[in-house]
Amino acid sequence: MNFGLAFDPLVPLPWLIGLAVVAALVALLVIASRTRGAVLRALALVLALLALANPSLTREEREPLSTVVAVVVDKSASQDFGDRTQMTQAARAELETRLARLKEQGAEIRFIDAGGGAGEVDGTRLFTALSAGLADVPPERVAGAIFLTDGRVHDIPATVAALGFHAPVHAIVSGQPNERDRRVALTSTPRFGIVGQTQTIGYRVEDEGAPAGARVSITVRRDGEVVGRPIVTAGQPANVDVEITHAGANIVEIEAAGLEGELTPVNNRAAVSIDGVRDKLRVLLVSGEPHVGERTWRNLLKSDANVDLVHFTILRPPEKQDGTPINELSLIAFPTRELFQQKIKDFDLIIFDRYAQQGVLPMIYFDNIVRYVEEGGALLVAAGTDFISDGSVYNTPLEAILPAAPTGQMTESPFRAALTEAGRRHPVTRNLPGSETSPPRWAPFFRVIDTQGARGTSVMDGPNGKPVVLLDHVGEGRVALLLSDHFWLWARGFDGGGPYIDLLRRLSHWLMKEPDLEEERLKMVAHGGDIVVERQTMGDAAPPVTITTPTGTTRTLNLTVAEPGLFRATFPADTLGLWRASDGKLTALVNVGPLNPREFAEVTSTTDTLRPIIEASGGGIWRMSALPDGVPRVIPVRSGERFAGEDWMGFAMRDVSVVRGLGLFPIFAGFSGLLILLAGVAAAWAREGR
Q1: Sign of dihedral through CA atoms 515, 518, 520, 525?
Q2: What separation in angstroms does the CA of 445 have from each of 244, 416, 462, 572?
Q3: Any residues with CB less than 8 A from the CB of 462 and at least 6 apart, and which?
Q4: Are 285 and 312 in contact (CB under 8 A)?
Q5: Where do the TM regions start and end (predicted)?
Q6: What is the 3-state secondary structure (H, E, C) of 529-589?
Q7: Which residues, in sequence order, are bridge partners of residue 287?
Q8: What pLDDT, on a 0 to 100 scale, did the predictor assign at position 664?
Q9: Which of 274, 460, 481, 538 has its CA 20 to 30 A from that of 500?
Q10: Which of 42, 49, 15 is nearest to 28 (CA)?
């Protein structure tokens, strides 16, 4: 219980000061003139001024508050390397025992866990955790803080004032002082690249705790496929050129060979995600003659902003030549040599739409088309009655790559094309709108070209199982054959129409090797806090997948059927970084959070990063391995500015309390004040009356 004196003037303070000055002058004048009773008169004036000042006796009931010591335990991923976790756990247990002495003196000990899990987006943030753990504690109650960490902290404040309290901060560092580690540091990382062109990535191999200048073997992978094995010098900058092969994310990994005795190989690999951008998909469309379905192809391809279409229609074949002078014709000559010899490799897809030999395209150019496909190009033949004529493109060198031969007959009767069993699994036709019912909910066709010796994959058939859409891989390229020329009925909305846009667009992009339309594909996608693994296959089952975490550990994942041709599984993404999935043949990559987490950039333990802020706060820093019990002695400090020694750490013990009750007794209020004033006046009168 504390007692005090408080004032609550009955008049404004300037007035009270003025009255005090006047009273002082009067008292001095009376005393100087040696007037009888001068002292008592001065005392009466003082009592009057005190009455106007309205003094009160105060009584405070205070409750002492505990001082707080915070212990922040680093549980980030870098603490899992070596024996750091065991060292930290032992240090924490010993620290609890030694801090019990402070608890006996009224201190409160708070243990705060920091880091761990998939939340380490921006590295180890111990000071953020400390601020959150002390958010409800006034700064004057904080006696100090302790960090149990490996020293790799990424939110160190610039000044000690940013801590928010005036107390020592100590650090006890796990790990060993002579640790070795090798890491790959990226120096230049392009974000975008044109498909088909190369991009340059800059990097440097850095060895910590080992001599510089070592020759290091590097493995460069793009989407899991090895594309280079250069040898570089540690500590020296290096570059690697990587071709961008497809649109979307191209994940490039640069992995260095391990260093003998290094702490961990997890940071021997760095990754870059380069978004591939297609300049334009160049398509050559050759229509053999004007027909009602020609505009369907043209409109479809022209509506795609990513497609650069070159379209020719043969309006004047050689048999229609007459004596009209060339300079009087409005037609453009078909540039066969330029298209099919000089620039054929510039096209991503060639389409023959009801094209028949008319002497326009020499046979040698069909040989060029065959080589173009075998070397990675794409050919689509939209066949009609031309396919069974004497001028059929099958009667050219294209016979070697077309997936079926015409019989010379065609079936002309209404039928609804249906997906085959393979078509229900193939990405081009899987879940095609309208295919979920039998018969399908789309318009019928009235003609199909009869073929024989079909190879490849029939994804859509007609009456008696006759193929309508055939897909085939030829060498490095692809070929598609449409055996009905009535797809335009779907575009015109006849009898409800059909999904011609979905079908023909998927078909075109499959021919141009769109990754999402590959028959055999392994894919990983980060969705929320989970990773989804999908396997597209034409088979009846999908093999188990081996998952490799960013830290290098592996697990086996079994996939279940999601729909025909698609198998799927989901698991939690509990670690930041690059995840890998492989089924022995295919590989998929996905990144969770930053590609190269700060947590794994530098992993050797250190006392250098924390030392400036520790010393500025008056604290100390020690290594667990250098102390007999892993932690220094704990000393309560009541006064002084030194809080650390060679083997001890101190904490600023505070005398802090909170007011729980307050009592006031006005001295000059009521009867007591009247008695005091009357006593003063009576004393002055009594002296005057002598």
Answers
A1: positive
A2: 42, 6, 9, 48
A3: 411, 415, 417, 418, 445, 448, 468, 484
A4: yes
A5: 12-31, 38-57, 663-686
A6: CEEEEEEECCCCCCCCEEEECCCCCEEEECCEEEECCEEEEEEECCCCEEEEEECCCCEEE
A7: 313, 353
A8: 62
A9: 538
A10: 42
Question: In sequence order, what are the beta bridge partners of 215?
Answer: 233
The helix-helix angle for 38-53 and 13-32 (nearest 10°) equals 170
Helix (H, G, I), strand (E, B) or coil at 423: helix
Q: State the Cα–Cα distance between residues 581 and 190, nearest whole angstrom.
A: 25
How many helices and strands in the chain, by DSSP H and E?
Answer: 12, 37
CA dihedral of residues 580, 581, 582, 588 (deg, nearest 10): -80
User: To which H or E segment does residue 614 belong?
Assistant: helix 611-616
Identify whether the C-beta of residue 309 lies closer than 8 Å to the C-beta of residue 353.
no
In whole angstroms, give the CA distance from residue 460 to residue 133: 64
Q: Are 354 and 288 in contact (CB under 8 A)?
A: yes
Query: What separation, in Å, do the N-terminal and C-terminal C-alpha atoms of the chain show?
Result: 47
- Identity (one letter) of the amino acid at 4? G
State how far the Cα of 686 lies from the Cα of 678, in Å rounded to an integer. 12
**Whole-angstrom distance, CA of residue 607 vs CA of residue 151:** 6
Instruction: For residues 416 and 230, give the distance between their C-alpha atoms in angstroms, rounded to a whole number.
Output: 57
- Tell me: the pLDDT tens digits for 307-331? 888 888 876 555 555 555 545 444 5
Look-up of token digits 């007794």: 665
Beta strand 198-208 with 648-652 is: unpaired
- Complete DSSP assignment for 481-547: EE--S-THHHHHTGGG---HHHHHHHHHHHHTT-GGG-SSEEEEEEETTEEEEEEE-SSS----EEE
CA distance 483 to 481: 6
pTM for this one?
Answer: 0.68
In sign, the C-alpha dihedral spanning 585, 590, 595, 597 is negative
Beta-bridge mates of residue 445: 415
If we measure between CA atoms, which residue out of 147, 169, 158, 23 comes closest to residue 74? 147
Nearest to 469 by CA among 508, 515, 407, 417: 417
- Concatenated DSSP letters of 95-111: HHHHHHHHHHTT-EEEE
Contact 542, 567 (CB under 8 A): yes
Q: How far apart are CA 131 and CA 305, in angstroms?
A: 52
Give the H or E element holding residue 666. strand 656-666
Give the whole-angstrom CA distance, residue 508 versus residue 351. 9
> CB of 432 within 8 A of CB of 448?
no
Q: Whose CA is closest to 635, among 644, 626, 646, 622?
A: 644
Is 133 a residue whose pLDDT tops 60? yes
pLDDT in tens, 337-360: 888 888 888 898 999 988 888 767
Which DSSP symbol is given to 335? -
